[in-house]
Amino acid sequence: VLFQLRNPSSPPCIRSWIPWFGAAFQFGKAPLEFIEQARSKHGPVFTIFALGKRFTFVTEEEGTEAFFKSKDLNFEQAVQQAVENAVSVPAEAFYQNHGNLYSMLKGKMGPSNLYVFTGTLCKELHEHMAHLGTEGTGNLNDLVRQVMYPAVVNTLFGKGICPTSQSEIKEFEEHFQKYDEDFEYASQMPECFLRNWSKSKKWLLKLFEKVVSDAERTNPSETTSKTLLQHLLDNLQGKHLAPNYGLLMLWASQANAVPIAFWTLVFILSYPSIYKKIMEDLTSVFGKAGKDKIEVSEEDLKKLPFIKWCTLEAIRLRSPGAITKKVVNPIRIQNFTVPAGDLLMLSPYWLHRNPKYFPDPEMFKPDRWKEANLEKNAFLDSFVAFGGGKHQCPGRWFAIMEIQLFVVLFLYKYEFVLLDAVPKESPLHLVGTQQPMAPFRVQYKCRE
Ligand code: HEM
């Protein structure tokens, strides 16, 4: 109320009586639910004062265009501190490297370059799926991770560069999972508040000193033979930060794509008519079940648009809770003026639930993607899971391809009995795609 009296044109501000923590406590417990409640109470634009910062949320389409296009907003300033907390890259080096590294990643993972990865990824997925055997029972989330993580890492970083073999992976996975689990909190606060997270970060950075030196040692002069990591090393200014950037790239390549691969399968397996259609499509392209290690090309994937629509629909429903920009000059959104210094937050998760753009928004309806001009690499209007404007996720086409390819191989090879009810998505995280709230066990066995 005091704030409103001081500045009537600012959005309503939610704060609590403990000034520094502000609304952090309620907000931190379940940010996605908190946003929804705040939205119904205060309207589509509101500010949360938490951890000494002002986060202003824009939860409806007004403001989306400004969010992606306005020169009064800055992406780099919004994420710099988070990058410094997460991987210890100092501000100066971050600003020096960001534009160049972003362009490189966008080019290397763009739609016209995907063919470079498809063959290797297909082979790697087969190899790691073989470790699951011909039948078994497990939590689908773990099964997906066991296959996707090593296959993708070997494809992007080079085989034998990161630990991926059965014998060395356990300790790595423990640290990486801890690192990923608390990444969001850790990127927002000093490391001393999160002791276990800090231990895992140090362990991973130490490991990446070796990863980077192996990648440097084997770096070929021929551009077409380089891995994505080697391109990153070639483009980096300040070589001592190579382990830090390597770790950041590993996290970016795994954190969102692996949960989405899980959700895509969950949605497909829990809608019998969708599953049936997909199995018919697979049969029409690859023939009956039972063939060993089908080779899937870019052309094959183009013949399976329905699986791509399922992937995009899973991304729509489980998209990041928020993406962020720093307000560098006051900006007008609806009838409010958002002051400089605020972090402006746009919620893909809530925008994707606007019935005006996505009728029956809570329903998994892959057919809605018929309307998107995917041949021209355009998504549906108001689909912002990868951000928008000039800072869109540079890995988006690779992400869609890897998930589509994984789903093709997994469903072609195995059939499933579902042992648990479909879990809800966890409201705990704001940054990144949602994790499941509960285990989802399946029995799997090779199709005959
Ligand atoms: C379904 C999977 C994915 C989703 C939903 C996703 C989403 C996002 C979003 C929302 C951003 C921030 C954009 C913004 O704030 O405007 C981002 C940034 C980024 N993503 Fe992704 N991403 C995915 C997969 C990937 C993959 C597979 C890679 C790499 C192989 C990747 C690499 C990156 C990088 C490097 C950035 C930082 C870009 C920058 O600093 O400008 N992402 N992603």
Automatic annotation (TrEMBL):
Highest taxon of the lineage: Eukaryota
GO cellular component: endoplasmic reticulum membrane
Listed InterPro entries: CYP450_sterol_14alpha_dmase (IPR050529), Cyt_P450 (IPR001128), Cyt_P450_CS (IPR017972), Cyt_P450_CYP7A1-type (IPR024204), Cyt_P450_E_grp-IV (IPR002403), Cyt_P450_sf (IPR036396)
Membrane topology classification: Multi-pass membrane protein
Cofactor dependence: heme
Pathway: Steroid metabolism; cholesterol degradation; Steroid biosynthesis; zymosterol biosynthesis; zymosterol from lanosterol: step 1/6; Lipid metabolism; bile acid biosynthesis
GO MF: 24S-hydroxycholesterol 7-alpha-hydroxylase activity; heme binding; iron ion binding; oxysterol 7-alpha-hydroxylase activity; sterol 14-demethylase activity
Alphabetical UniProt keywords: Cholesterol metabolism, Endoplasmic reticulum, Heme, Iron, Lipid metabolism, Membrane, Metal-binding, Microsome, Monooxygenase, Oxidoreductase, Steroid metabolism, Sterol metabolism, Transmembrane, Transmembrane helix
Binding site for substrate: N256
Positions contributing to heme binding: C393
Listed EC numbers: 1.14.14.154, 1.14.14.26
Keyword Iron in annotation: yes
PANTHER family membership: 24-HYDROXYCHOLESTEROL 7-ALPHA-HYDROXYLASE (PTHR24304:SF2), CYTOCHROME P450 FAMILY 7 (PTHR24304)
Listed name of the protein: 24-hydroxycholesterol 7-alpha-hydroxylase
